[in-house]
Design goal:
Blueprint (H helix, E strand, L loop, with lengths): L6 H21 L12 H12 L20 H13 L3 H26 L2 H12 L2 H7 L5 H19 L5 H16 L5 H13 L7 H26 L1 H17 L11 H9 L7 H9 L5 H16 L11 H17 L8 H29 L13 H9 L9 E4 L8 H7 L3 E5 L17 E2 H4 L5 E6 L11 E7 L3 E7 L2
Parallel strand pairs: 1-2, 1-4, 2-3
Antiparallel strand pairs: 4-6, 5-6
């Protein structure tokens, strides 16, 4: 007969379940309360939606090859769409559930290897870190990448305690990271090599589990990459490895102009007030062999993406769980010997002071954090598509063939969310030819002149209401649906 679980096991399971419920309460509400954001969120949602009626192997956006990322998160989102419908909630659910999994994973691991105090501090600190909350509430890939990294780090910590089965977790986590964001998972091998050198691991520390874990990694990662190369050949390798990985690493692309200290600003806005504890927590982490991979990984992630020339705030998202583990253990070690000597009045003052500091941190960093995560193609002043998205979501589109024409004033910009809500190809149109230096790429579809795009048969058009009277002579516009600033109608040209 199986033995009954001990009281400590029941306590660990109950504590982990409670932390998981707390994470669900913080991360899941309001996922679908606003339209998708431009660029990544809209692009990933549309690529996942197109899998429902097309290929699950070869991603498309929209109806053309999309080779920027591996498909793991797209598969997860497409599965949610198929089971529950195509909505903003399910476009973001993959990120939110990955965040819940990280909280639960770290809580259970710290409860087993340290104590419940460390576990609960990790859950509270992580769910109060603005940068982590943000990436969990958007439909991007960085939280699933972070989950893979956490699995790998737990595996490395097990290997350090001479449990060589930890290699299976280390390789499994790396496979998740690579199948989520490709080369972004390189921080795990760098961490592993650095950790092994510092600890002077003998060859016997690797052994059969290392080789078997590597075989598992290859079995999870190689099939999709080989299938894509077999289908597309150099078209896949040149874009996936060349344009996407190498160009992004060596050049500042898509209008993102940042300096080397960019991630200092990101941390100041995304991790107050815990940022004040990070330096000493990292230092103490380096002095404990089981925590050392977390300290190495946190620094490696920040330094690696600082070297990369294209810098975005969510790139260092995998560092937040690692920094949280180090900080939670440091604070728990400081608190533990003092717990019995602290009065209720002290705890009351501490809780009130903490709430005040955290509230002030929210107020002082909100605008900076919002600015960091704003879609920006060509500098300040780029318009968003929220009003257009709301109109497309609420107004039924007639069955008129051809792409939706989209006319806006201002700079050229991404049409990713417009494509998602229109559920059809979108062609951005302009009244005058764009300047030669305009950033033309996949996500603006190399805009056409309106007079060239209009035809004798009706074409659907979505435009800024202020431009209705600027339409060129010779075209006939018929309005259908309207909102505060946008209007949807048809246009013809004899």
């Amino acid at each position: 007969m199986p033995t009954a679980p001990s009281s400590s096991q029941r306590s660990l399971a109950a504590s982990t379940a409670l932390a998981t419920l707390l994470a669900c309460f913080v991360l899941l509400p309001l996922l679908g309360h606003k339209p998708l954001t431009e660029w990544d969120e809209g692009i990933y949602a549309e690529a996942a939606r197109e899998m429902l009626g097309g290929s699950w192997l070869v991603p498309h956006w929209p109806s053309q090859l999309w080779l920027e990322k591996p498909p793991l998160m797209l598969w997860i989102t497409a599965t949610f769409f198929k089971l529950f419908g195509v909505t903003e909630f399910w476009a973001r659910a993959g990120s939110a559930f990955s965040g819940v999994a990280i909280v639960a994973l770290l809580h259970r691991w710290l409860a087993r290897t340290r104590d419940l105090l460390s576990a609960w501090l990790s859950s509270i600190f992580l769910l109060a870190t603005f940068g982590f909350l943000h990436v969990c509430h958007v439909g991007e890939m960085d939280v699933l990448l972070s989950l893979g990294c956490c699995i790998s780090l737990i595996g490395l910590s097990q290997v350090q305690t001479e449990n060589r089965n930890g290699w299976y977790l280390a390789w499994l986590g790396l496979a998740i990271a690579v199948m989520t964001k490709g080369s972004a998972g390189v921080t795990i091998p760098i961490t592993t090599a650095t950790f092994a050198i510092i600890q002077r691991w003998p060859w016997k520390r690797f052994g059969v589990p290392f080789a078997a874990g590597f075989a598992l990694f290859l079995a999870l990662v190689l099939p999709w990459h080989l299938a894509m190369y077999q289908r597309l050949g150099h078209q896949f390798s040149d874009f996936y490895f060349g344009t996407h990985m190498l160009t992004r690493a060596t050049q500042q692309i898509e209008g993102h102009r940042t300096q080397w200290w960019y991630y200092i600003v990101v941390l100041l806005a995304s991790a107050p007030p815990f940022l004040l504890l990070y330096p000493v927590a990292i230092y103490r982490g380096f002095r404990r062999s089981q925590l050392q991979p977390w300290a190495i990984f946190a620094l490696t992630t920040i330094l690696f993406f600082t070297i990369i020339q294209t810098r975005l705030p969510h790139y260092i998202a995998p560092a937040y769980p690692a920094l949280t583990v180090l900080t939670a253990v440091y604070v728990a070690d400081w608190l533990r010997p003092r717990l019995g000597n602290l009065s209720k009045a002290y705890w009351t003052r501490t809780i009130v002071a903490t709430a005040i500091v955290w509230t002030l941190a929210i107020l002082t960093t909100h605008s900076t954090l919002k600015g960091l995560h704003s879609a920006d193609l060509a500098g300040p002043g780029v318009l968003d598509n929220k009003e257009a998205d709301i109109l497309l979501k609420s107004a039924p589109l007639p069955n008129i063939p051809g792409p939706l024409l989209y006319l806006r004033d201002g700079r050229l910009q991404s049409i990713a969310t417009v494509v998602f809500y229109a559920k059809r190809p979108v062609q951005q149109v302009v009244l005058t030819p764009p300047p030669p230096a305009s950033p033309l790429d996949l996500y603006v579809f190399n805009p056409q002149l309106l007079t060239d795009a209009a035809q004798a048969t009706p074409r659907l058009i979505l435009l800024d209401k202020s431009l209705i009277f600027a339409l060129p002579p010779g075209v006939t516009y018929t309005p259908m649906h309207t909102s505060a600033t946008e209007e949807l109608g048809t246009i013809t040209r004899p």
